[in-house]
Design a protein that fits this description.
It is a single chain. By secondary structure, the chain is of the alpha/beta class. The protein has two domains: about 220 residues, Rossmann fold (3-Layer(aba) Sandwich); about 60 residues. The protein is about 30% helix and about 30% strand. It is built from ten helices and 14 strands. α3 crosses α4. The longest helix has 16 residues. The radius of gyration is 24 Å and the shape is elongated.
């Protein structure tokens, strides 16, 4: 069942079409990537999903019914890229205040805060002020205040900004655990490698329009270019007409592009008929970063291979 269904959503500012007829659907328990260059419409879209902006046209269905910003917002946790913590307020008091704003009573809020503070080793921070925290420490606090009321939908805008690798992995593990419990996460970032690692499904927007959406696996397969990496015990001699073009050679391996009229099995048979020992045969799929650049900039995908010798 879907937690969120967006239907023909539009938002205009004067003559600018910030969101221009976008539709997509997010299933419960999904980690969903919202991608696009600066000015693509991601922030405007997020603000409509959180009730900050109202759409000019279209509708949002939340958990099977029309989105009600007043009542449904308590089921949403939003961590904006521009952090919204009160710098002069003590951390413990601030976490308690924000939890109660989301509908938790004081007893339950304190229990949830203490659990998260222990999990993130923040117990000694209670009486510190936000202005005394490093960017990474502030980021951990912002994440905790976003999720501690156990929302159905969590929207994270650049959640790993300022975090060292250890704390990035800590938050990443918690994102996986939240999804396993049925929570849905919308993950917005410019870091394509993080999207590729974390997300089940993505949408790419540019200039207010949806460019593509689907699962990460499906999208990478849609843009594959018949490239394969073949490993050998020793470099073979090529005899006759090969069903491939060699793109790159390295020690004991070829990177090849299979010609249109041939299949991967034809490449294997080409070598096996001459008794060539193959120890690896792997398809090379494009990265999301390559697909992103191709679609947004309209340029061919540039693969990280040197020309063959």
């Amino acid at each position: 069942m879907s937690i969120l269904k967006i239907q023909n959503l539009k938002k205009y500012f004067a003559t600018q079409k910030a969101v221009d007829d976008i539709s997509f659907e997010i299933k419960k328990g999904t980690i969903f990537g919202l991608l696009g260059p600066n000015g693509a419409g991601k922030t405007t879209l997020i603000r409509m999903l959180t009730g900050i902006f109202y759409p000019d046209e279209g509708q949002i269905l939340f958990d099977g019914k029309k989105f009600d910003p007043i009542n449904d917002v308590v089921h949403i946790g939003y961590m904006p890229e521009e952090r919204g913590l009160y710098k002069k307020m003590k951390i413990g008091e601030q976490a308690l205040y924000l939890a109660q704003l989301k509908g938790l009573n004081k007893t339950l809020a304190l229990a949830q805060i203490k659990e998260w503070f222990v999990k993130f080793e923040m117990q000694s921070w209670w009486n510190k002020k936000v202005e005394d925290l490093s960017k990474g420490m502030s980021q951990k606090l912002q994440f905790v205040t976003t999720v501690l009321h156990q929302p159905k939908l969590i929207i994270l805008d650049e959640p790993f900004s300022g975090l060292d690798p250890v704390n990035s992995n800590l938050i990443k593990d918690e994102i996986y655990k939240l999804a396993e419990k049925g929570c849905t996460i919308i993950f917005s970032t410019h870091r394509m490698e993080q999207v590729e690692e974390i997300c089940d499904q993505i949408i790419l927007v540019n200039k207010g329009k949806k460019i593509l959406d689907g699962t990460v696996k499906q999208i990478k397969n849609d843009f594959k270019e018949n490239l394969f990496r073949i490993g050998f015990d020793s470099m073979p001699m090529l005899n006759g007409t090969a069903p491939f073009e060699i793109i790159n050679t390295k020690e004991f391996s070829y990177i090849v592009k299979i010609k249109d009229q041939y299949k991967p099995n034809d490449v294997l048979n080409y070598f096996l008929k001459d008794g060539v020992q193959i120890n690896s045969f792997q398809e090379i799929l494009p990265s999301l970063n390559e697909i992103f650049i191709k679609l947004v900039e309209g340029t061919p995908m540039t693969r990280q291979f040197q020309p063959a010798n």
